[in-house]
Amino acid sequence: MDVLRFRTKLATGLATAALLAVPVFGQANTSSDTQTHGQAVVTVLPDKNAQPREVSAQDLQVRINGKDATITNVQSLRSNSDRLEVVLMMDAGARTSLSNQFGDIKNFINGLPADAKVTLAYMQFGTARVVSPLTTDRNAVLKGLRIPAGSPGENASAYVCLSDLAKHWPSQDRSARRVVVMITDGVDYYNPQYDSQDPYMETAISDSVRSGLVVYSIYWQNKGRFDRTWYANNAGQNLLAQVTQATGGNSYWEGMGNPVSFQPFFKDLDRRLQNQYEVAFTAPVSKPGVESMKLKVNNGGVKVDAPQQVYVGRGTTGGAM
């Protein structure tokens, strides 16, 4: 019995020593070096005629790739000092009747918050040709407003142009709220047959998400016979909707033709810009990259537009360039 008790104590002691000698790798998962973080601009619109209300972290639920994320901060973007940057990008192949909307475009630019920075760009030959630096000087920006004089298909692809803008955004302020307003019919001349997985459109989404862009679109037909067809109208509008929904923006159009006025669209866009929040979170994924996102508001009485995709990365923010 003494020998048996000795062997039992010896085995127990060896097992305990072995456990103490094993490094606790699981603790590394709590280190900030292995956590990924993200942030997204979300729009929370109150019911019609209702007063805007503040939204807190307790009101929101964020899921990344179907898994719950931990919200770390919710910041309202209603103030004039939230570093709003807007690029209004027009299709160089648009019909010249776009000049009839210049009054609404000027009113929109002049009506932005005083501290907001803005500029114009033109989609041309696969690039976004920015006419001036981002600035609060509205007069300087509006000097670049011109009637598109290009030929059919001159933009090559609105999505290649958007990718170019995302990669060469005209500022280095990663804390800014970056907004794009695209005026185009959305037809992709590199891939004219409608494809819900259009590679240029999907690349534009990925590049926009990585650069932190919120993309809005206003439908306006380009020159050329193909752009007047029902097929082109439908394909372009659907591709634009995929881009805007993925980035948390919105698409505007009236049927299959050109709208009479941009004013209702800009009015809605102004309302959205005044009811946005920046939501920061810790993501339940281990590697940086573009991931799927879903956001839910616990309290009713509001309409939420959140990006369907978001970039998560190391550090305290989800931005990437």
Overview in brief:
The protein is an alpha/beta fold and 321 residues long. It is 27% helix and 27% strand. The protein has helices spanning 2-21, 102-110, 138-142, 158-167, 199-211, 230-247, 263-273, and strands spanning 36-46, 60-64, 67-68, 70-76, 84-91, 117-124, 127-130, 177-184, 213-219, 251-252, 276-283, 289-297, 302-305, 309-313.
Task: Report what the structure shows.
It is a single chain. Helix content is 27%, strand content 27%. With 321 residues, it is α/β, with parallel strands linked by helices. The protein folds into 2 domains: 35-78 and 275-313, Immunoglobulin-like (Sandwich); 84-267, von Willebrand factor, type A domain (Rossmann fold, 3-Layer(aba) Sandwich). β5, α2 (102-110) and β6 form a beta-alpha-beta unit.
State the share of residues found in helices, binned by percent: 25-40%
The main β sheet shows up as: 8 strands, antiparallel
Overall number of domains: 2
CATH superfamily of the largest domain, called what?
von Willebrand factor, type A domain
Key descriptive features of the protein:
single chain, 321 residues, alpha/beta, Immunoglobulin-like, Rossmann fold, 2 domains, eight-stranded antiparallel β-sheet, six-stranded mixed β-sheet, 7 helices, 14 strands, globular
Task: Detail the topology: elements first, then pairings.
Blueprint: H1 2-21, E1 36-46, E2 60-64, E3 67-68, E4 70-76, E5 84-91, H2 102-110, E6 117-124, E7 127-130, H3 138-142, H4 158-167, E8 177-184, H5 199-211, E9 213-219, H6 230-247, E10 251-252, H7 263-273, E11 276-283, E12 289-297, E13 302-305, E14 309-313
Parallel strand pairs: 5-6, 5-8, 8-9, 9-10
Antiparallel strand pairs: 1-11, 1-13, 1-14, 2-3, 2-12, 4-11, 6-7, 12-14
